[in-house]
Amino acid sequence: MQRNPLPDDPGPVHASHGRGTNQTGVRLYNERLILSLIRRHGRLTKVDIARLTGLSLQTTTVVMNRLEADGLLLAGERQRGRIGQPAVPYLLNPDGAYGLGMVVGRRACELVLMDFVAGVRRRERLTYPYPLPDQLIAFAGRTLPGLIATLPPAAQARICGTGIAMPFELWNWEEVLEAPKDALAGWHDFDMAAELSRLAPGPVRVMNDATAACAAELTFGGGSAYRDFAYFYIATFIGGGIVLNGSLFPGRSGNAGAFGSMPVVARGPGGGTGVQQLIRSASLYRLERQLGAIGIAGSQLWEQPDDWTRFSGPVDAWIEEAAEGLAQAIASCLAVVDFEAMVIDGAFPAAVRDKLVKRTVAAFARLDRQGLTETRIVAGTMGRAARAIGGGALPLLDTFGRDLDVLFKD
After folding, report:
1. Which of 117, 184, 238, 377 has the most CB atoms in a 10 Å sphere around its CB?
2. Per-residue pLDDT reduced to its tens digit, 282-303
3. Number of helices followed by number of strands (H, E) in the chain
4. Could you tell me if 2 and 225 are in contact, meaning their C-beta atoms sit under 8 angstroms apart?
5. 341 bridge partner residues
6. d(CA 104, CA 209)
7. How far is CA 219 from CA 87, 214, 266, 338, in A?
8. Which of 30, 93, 26 is nearest to 61 (CA)?
9. How many whole angstroms separate alpha carbon 168 and alpha carbon 201?
10. Is the dihedral of CA 15, 21, 24, 27 positive or negative?
11. Are 279 and 273 within 8 A, CB to CB?
């Protein structure tokens, strides 16, 4: 995959460059900037870092030596065959830090232990017909100690915290989830972060599950190739995220990219058309119901999550319906922001994702696009793991991600 050059990456920020900055903030900012660059490129030499950031080679050396001493960077093998002294590339140390992630889905919950390079070291899963707060906290209480114990004691001290990726306002989806009336009412005043903080080490942060998946695509997947993109993540319900100028844009309420609520035109059973939300066209609960209509339990989709070939007929019909809705949603997005790319991913097999992308491209080509900037419609790269990796990444990004706010750290 070709990655963008980085002329727009911020260079070093010195204390004299802005009111309120201080030496601690500058040091933290430059450390985070260097870690972010190495994460994006895989491995870089000190000369590479100095060139990309504008830092002096001496300052770069001091910062990188400190990161190596802290266990966050590893020195690779010297690169020979060039003029001058052999260069040493540096890469992130997978054991440099860890994050715990909890993914609350409409049909399942996952707890993951993730390392510094997004490697999932351990995963535990609980399935259910619909999520209940007490059930999930009990699952975490049973599972977290064993998850953490897979690391040696010294490594356990490197756990930065816990990220929760979950849908907002779960109580609004009782009818669609076919849950009993008021079964999800307990979510109204339930503080998941506060409850989990009693069980998990470090700070706990909550993010919308589709936004967390978008963060994973941007930070660890193919999304880093694009400066701006809209991200559609399809699970039981469709959601999404927005990236602007290379950074995740959560919005003022954390709900930016709520594409499931976008109105689209859809065909009804009798052949007529009407307006409905995208969530009614491009969500996997629709496929579950279509399977149920022909006598197949929709839960079977999750028993073999990487191979849906035996459901090919209903899956193909669902893809056609979903692609029409996605194409309209993409056109609507482009009318607001001229995104460089539209990324489609979800909790389904790669073959289903690729076919959906192909059908969406075809449906988009049939629309009246006069006045819209062209965009690329591409497949995501994280798949079913996107939300789990996004959840586990939240504490790592909070601690080590590039963040201008650290310049003003007290």
Report:
1. 238
2. 999 999 999 999 999 888 888 8
3. 12, 14
4. yes
5. 229, 376
6. 8
7. 26, 9, 34, 21
8. 30
9. 24
10. negative
11. no
pTM: 0.84
In which element (H, E) is residue 241 found?
Answer: strand 238-244
Spatial separation of the C-alpha atoms in residues 282 and 321, rounded to whole Å: 7
224-228 long-range contacts, Cβ below 8 Å, gap at least 24? 224/3, 224/4, 224/40, 225/1, 225/2, 225/3, 225/4, 225/341, 226/4, 226/340, 226/341, 226/343, 226/376, 227/4, 227/8, 227/340, 228/337, 228/338, 228/339, 228/340, 228/341
Residue 337, both tokens: 């922001």
HEC per residue, 73-141: EEECCCECCCCCCCECCEEECCCCCEEEEEEECCCEEEEEEEECCCCEEEEEEEECCCCCHHHHHHHHH
In sequence order, what are the beta bridge partners of 109? 104, 126
pLDDT tens string 197-231: 999 999 999 999 999 999 999 989 999 899 999 99
In this structure, the number of other CB atoms found within 10 A of the CB of residue 226 comes to 23
Is-contact 391 101, C-beta < 8 A?
A: yes
Q: What proportions of the chain, in percent to the nearest 5, are helix, strand and coil?
A: 45, 20, 35
Give CA separation, 386 vs 215, 273, 312, in Å: 9, 34, 24
